[in-house]
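Recall that a protein's primary structure is simply its ordered list of amino acids. Everything else, from secondary elements to tertiary packing, is in principle encoded there. The following example makes that idea concrete.
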Amino acid sequence: MQKKRIILVLIAIFLVLAGIGGTKKVVEMRQAAQKERQIAFLKAHEKELVDFIKKYSSQEETVEFDWETVEAGKGMAFTKPTLIVKFNISDSSEKKYNDQGYVLRVDTDINKLNKIDALMVLNDPIYSNIQGEDQ
């Protein structure tokens, strides 16, 4: 009788742990699918993003996005989540600005992903004149 009880408890513990592991996998798959949607949205608007960056700098530069760095997050408490993506610029006339790892913040509804509300380049003094400007 005691052995049956121990076996049943062990089976119950195993099932609970398996359920937790399975739930974790589902959440991870959902997050991966959401990230793919976000990347697809940004790629669809890539020209708009590049034009925004080039509007305030040399037209000769090449802008290259690192799509694997796309993430949704909040800049501060009580703000809506935004998308951020890292990018590099290559400008043959200003070598010192090349490959600095800039960050572009894309204000959009991260659930709908239907339009871009505003863009902002972060962590870059070169683009400081465009901070907070709406499109």
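The chain has two helices and four strands. Residues 35-130 form one domain.
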